[in-house]
Design goal:
about 5% helix; Immunoglobulin-like; 10-stranded antiparallel β-sheet; disordered N terminus
């Protein structure tokens, strides 16, 4: 069983007692030793591989310059965010709605995977959107803020189409057959996979993520005498149960490289989809002819990267804005040279937030 060393101070309870009470309720895992590095360059296309596959056993010995990585165990295990000996079945990241009267739909996902895939593989993943379940009690005073609950939409994708290759990996967009119904509460986006670890046959997949410790959102909030653990991302164990990464899954305090493709509808006020301090309001005009404006706000200073891609995942344009202040920003994007059609763009902040949306161009 994995031991949990949870060294933080909480109001009304000591560090030791807090850790012990969480450990009483959470399934822990044995952490292997002998770590080494398998890393990817940060949020660029293509994702050039800096070392070989299948060599990372633990979240350590990671260079400060490596900002996006996946972790695996040779020869066939995604270990942290993919196919692994534990039989983990799903991985999800939470997104919030800024305003109860907002009206948001999710039309697909953007993701980046690493690893290896057998060219003859018939395995698939299911990209999904889940609503957020209610608070879950760990003890009488410690609660999880809510885990993935009911699937709101999904699309099945073969492993061979995830953008994984021997030399570089690409970001890919995948769309649902129909948009979700309107969403006005927090939701999770991620993927499920069914497999037998003993019969992977060369398929090692793992969703890329930032290195452990780069998540900046709060680990917990205190409400009166209660402690609410902030479930920012979660792992679905082999028994189908969802578990918070930061307290029950190798102390993972990171961000997953998977984003919802959202359509933000305006109601009585301008609302947003929020992820780790990045709030996205959409782009206008949309459809666009010669140009459009992408609007978002930041809760604290951050660098922003906007990438425009076609529906096959090919990066057309990258805009980098460094050290933007907290508050609302509007970044213009020229569409004059683009052919008529639909495009996807992603916004990623250095604080870890990431969101994607659809842009239509008309001529």
């Amino acid at each position: 069983m994995k031991k949990l060393f949870f060294c933080i101070a909480i109001a009304s309870c000591s560090t030791i007692s807090f850790a012990q009470r969480i450990a009483e309720k959470h399934e822990m895992r044995t952490q292997p030793a002998a770590p080494s590095l398998s890393a990817y360059n940060a949020y660029s296309s293509p994702f050039a591989k800096t070392t070989g596959d299948g060599d990372t056993l633990a979240l350590s010995n990671i260079s400060a310059t490596d900002t996006l990585t996946y972790y695996s165990v040779a020869p066939d295990s995604g270990y942290i965010t993919g196919t692994n000996a534990f039989g983990d079945m799903g991985f999800a990241e939470r997104y919030d709605i800024n305003g109860a009267d907002s009206n948001v739909q999710v039309i697909g996902v953007v993701s980046t995977f690493g690893g290896t895939v057998n060219p003859a593989s018939a395995k698939t993943v299911n990209f999904k959107v889940w609503d957020q379940g209610p608070q879950t009690a760990i003890t009488s005073t410690i609660f999880l803020s809510g885990l993935p609950q009911t699937a709101l939409d999904s699309v099945q994708v073969p492993l061979t189409q995830l953008g994984i290759s021997p030399s570089y990996d690409t970001t890919k967009a995948f769309f649902f057959a129909n948009p979700t119904a309107s969403i006005s509460n927090s939701f999770f986006v991620g993927y499920n996979i069914n497999y037998s670890y003993a019969a992977l046959n060369g398929d090692t997949i793992a969703l890329l993520c930032t290195i452990n410790g780069e998540r900046t959102s709060a680990l917990y909030n205190v409400s009166g005498t209660d402690t609410i653990i902030n479930v920012q991302n979660a792992t679905q164990y082999s028994d189908n149960s969802w578990n918070d990464n930061a307290t029950a899954n190798f102390f993972l305090y990171d961000n997953l490289a998977i984003y919802p493709i959202v359509v933000v509808h305006y109601a009585t006020d301008v609302k947003a989809v929020t992820n780790k301090g990045l709030s996205f309001y959409g782009n206008y005009p949309n459809p666009a002819s010669a140009n459009t404006n992408i609007q978002f706000s930041l809760s604290s200073n951050a660098d922003i990267t906007i990438q425009l891609m076609d529906l096959s995942g090919h990066i057309i344009n990258t805009i980098q804005q460094n050290n933007l202040s907290s508050g609302t920003h509007v970044i213009p994007l020229s569409t004059a040279a683009l052919a008529a059609g639909n495009y996807v763009y992603t916004i990623h902040s250095s604080a870890g937030g990431g969101i994607a949306s659809m842009l239509s161009v008309v001529k």
